[in-house]
Task: structure prediction
Amino acid sequence: MARKLTEELRQILTNGCRGQVDSACLPDDDRELGLLVNQLLLQRDQAKHERLAVKANLLDDVDALVEVLEKISLGNFKVQAPVMRLPEMDSVQIGIHDMVRKLEDNLLKILHGERKVSKVESKYRHIFENAIEGLFQLAPDGRFLTANPSLCEKLGYECCEQLLHGSTPSLLQCFVRPKESAEYERILREEGQLSDYVCRLKGKNEEGIWAKISLRGVYGSDKRLEFYEGYLLDVTESKVKEQAEKEKQIALEGSKAKSMFLANMSHEIRTPLNAIIGFNRLILERHLPPDLHQYLSNAQESAELLLVLLNDILDFSKIEAGQLDLGEDLFDAGKILDGAIKTMTVKADEKGLRLTGYLKGGAATTLVGDGHRLRQILLNLMGNSIKFTEQGGVTVLGEVYAETEESVVLHFEVIDTGPGIPDEVQLRIFDSFCQADNSITRLHGGSGLGLAISKRLVALLDGEIWIESEDGRGATFHFTVKFRKDCSGMSRMAGQEPVRVVEEVVPCDRALHILLVEDNKFNVDLAQIMLEGAGHQVTVALSGLQALRALLESRFDLILMDVQMPEMDGIMATRLIRSCESGRDECPPEYREMVQVLAARLKGGRLPIIAMTANAMSDDREKCVEAGMDDYISKPYNPDEIFSALNRAVMRKDSQCGVLLG
Result:
């Protein structure tokens, strides 16, 4: 029977089915064993059933969790995991809840960070889009990767799309000058960056700009160049200003060179002209046959006309260079006009013209300013009218146009009966080198500078100048000038006459021992004749160095000092003399021994030194005064100027001696 039980049990186990051993069919001895087997089979079946239930519950729990995870993946962090059927799954539920909270926290942080990044990106995008500078990124080959609107505008593009995808998408194609493009590439190749590189760039419309470029390379983790980033500044305005400043400097240097040239030419012309005019004057003072006297008079007039032309050219040059300084002296406007009329009467008489002039209302007011320039304007305008007038005459009228407690504005009219001036010529009549008749066959000579100089002098005197004329009916030149009143009371005291403009020459009452320092033989002869003829003793030195040696040998009352001389000029000689007088040790080594001896002789004194030079520029007088000279005479000079300067020097010296003695 045990065999039968074994077979039934094998069959049950083999088939995997549920079943029981039929214990009733078993012998008594095996029945208890059958019951035990059936109990085991029952437990097996129960266990299998329980496992199937757990499996089903586990699958349900997993499905529920998958559903929850799917919702979480879609961003639903509010979902809750369901209650698990299996207690063992509770820890999984708790883990999912923790995971959800962490995910939610991390997501919030990420979202917050993205907002910050978005704000920063928006901020810098705004800066990029609205920057005044042209911002850009370039590929290693120079192509534009990005560009802001400012850069596009600077290069003439309406939008960035045109620049990035247009016909010139590379910075290298924007260079105007190949040399600058090559230099740009060289610097980038050698240094890897660019700082304030100034170059000329062109854009779409070919209108070039001056640009200042700075850029640097941006490298990846592998240290390979990814792109360049940089900025561009439009420096056209500053470059234009710089260029204008350079041109101005060149013009100033040119003006200085021109002034120097004119100064040298003036000196070279005035030096022989001084001898020509001086010797002619001496000869004309003698009794000569009428024809010879006429010849010399013509030569003298020609020389003086040449001097007038030279002075006009120098005045024009000084005015253009801003070097013309106005004087501040007392003068009588009425006497200025009278003197100008007397000067021009000879020319008017030669042409049979009537020349008259007066101040309306007797306005002969003593004023403060540059009366010499007022006289020059009047002479220029009267000379112009006389030159172009063939019949009738020239009239000069003056009046007080306006006045305040401190100043007076004078208005003058120069009226002629000449041919008149056409309207088109009036527009340019005051231009430099302009004449009413510029044809080769013009009847009247002249440089065309007189009216141009007058216009500039009037402007310097705070006035205006203009013309009224009709073709064939004469012309009237008007001008106004402004001067200060004499508020000091020096011009009139107790009914006395106003201060005179022209200095009266009073002969020196004693003979002087004069040291004449001059290198030009003819001017030496001329000065000796004039000075010795007036009773003075003259010693000649041909240079400043010879003058110092002469001072070692003799005592002199006065020095007439030329400026431009060989070996040592008059400026240097004067400075050394003043250094000796004052006890200052200011001497070049090569002259030290001689100057030390001279200092012992001159110390404590003050020897009058008068510049007598052909230098006639505005700063020449200042140089002479700065060197220590007491007075200044410009060549060509006349005897009155020499003797007036001698008188001033003697009076100054006597006054100083009187103060010392007192």
Observations:
- The chain has 18 helices and 17 strands.
- The two ends are 178 Å apart (CA to CA).
- Residues 655 and 661 are 10 Å apart (CA to CA).
